[in-house]
Design goal:
about 190 residues; alpha/beta; Rossmann fold; four-stranded parallel sheet; globular
Length: about 190
C-alpha cells in the first residue's frame, strides 16, 4: 500500500515495479477523493488533502514515471479526470483539482511532444462505483447541498456507465490504437454530460 501524497511512497512504488517486472510502460493515475463540499464549507485542511491527492498525486507519479519513460522516449500516461472538470457541479476542491488535472495532462503532453510518450486523460461521467452510489445518496463529504445550486446545470446522474467503460477508454489510449493521441481528454459519460 502506498500514499500518493508521499514523494517517498511514490518513488518506492516505481522502484518496486522495476524490481518485480523489469520496466514500466503505462501509468494510470486513478487515486482520488470525491466530495461535494461547497466553497464556503471548505476549510484549509480539507482543501489541501484533496488537492494533494487529486493533483499532487498525479504530478508525483508522472515525475517518477518520466525517469523511466524519458530515457527510452516511450510510455503512456493516463490521468483519470472527471466530467466535473468542465461541468463543476461537485465539490469546490474536487472540481478544481480535476480541472487542473486536465491542464496538467495537456502541459505534460506538450513537454513530451517530441517523444513517443503519450499523456492523455479519461473523464468519467456517472459510473456505477461505490463513490458514485454514495454521491447519488448524498453521502459524499459535503452531502447533497451543492447539488441544490448546481443540479439544474447538469443531467445528474443521467445515463450511467459501468467501470468497464472507463477501462475500455484506458485500453484504447494505452494500446497502439491510441498511438497518436496526445494531450486529449476523452469523456466517457454515456451522453449525460454533452
Amino acid at each position: 500500500m502506498a500514499d500518493v501524497c508521499s514523494t517517498e511512497d511514490t518513488r518506492k512504488v516505481f522502484e518496486t515495479a522495476i524490481k518485480e517486472f523489469g520496466d514500466v510502460d503505462i501509468l494510470i493515475n486513478n487515486a482520488g477523493i470525491g466530495e461535494q463540499k461547497m466553497i464556503d464549507e471548505t476549510d484549509d485542511d480539507w482543501m489541501m488533502m484533496v488537492m494533494n491527492t487529486n493533483l499532487g498525486g498525479p504530478m508525483r507519479c508522472i515525475r517518477e514515471a518520466l525517469k523511466i519513460f524519458l530515457p527510452k522516449k516511450d510510455g503512456c500516461i493516463i490521468n483519470i479526470s472527471s466530467v466535473s472538470a468542465t461541468r463543476p457541479f461537485c465539490g469546490a476542491t474536487y472540481t478544481s483539482t480535476k480541472g487542473a488535472l486536465n491542464t496538467l495532462t495537456k502541459n505534460a503532453a506538450m513537454r513530451l511532444i517530441d517523444t513517443n510518450i503519450r499523456c492523455n486523460a479519461v473523464a468519467p461521467g456517472s459510473t456505477i462505483t461505490p463513490a458514485h452510489l454514495a454521491n447519488k445518496a448524498g453521502k459524499q463529504p459535503g452531502g447533497a447541498k451543492m447539488l441544490q445550486y448546481s443540479g439544474h446545470y447538469v443531467y445528474f446522474p443521467g445515463p450511467e456507465c459501468d467501470p468497464i467503460d472507463q477501462a475500455y477508454a484506458c485500453l484504447y489510449l494505452a494500446s497502439m490504437m491510441g498511438r497518436h493521441v496526445k494531450g486529449q481528454i476523452i469523456q466517457v459519460c454515456n451522453g449525460a454530460f454533452l
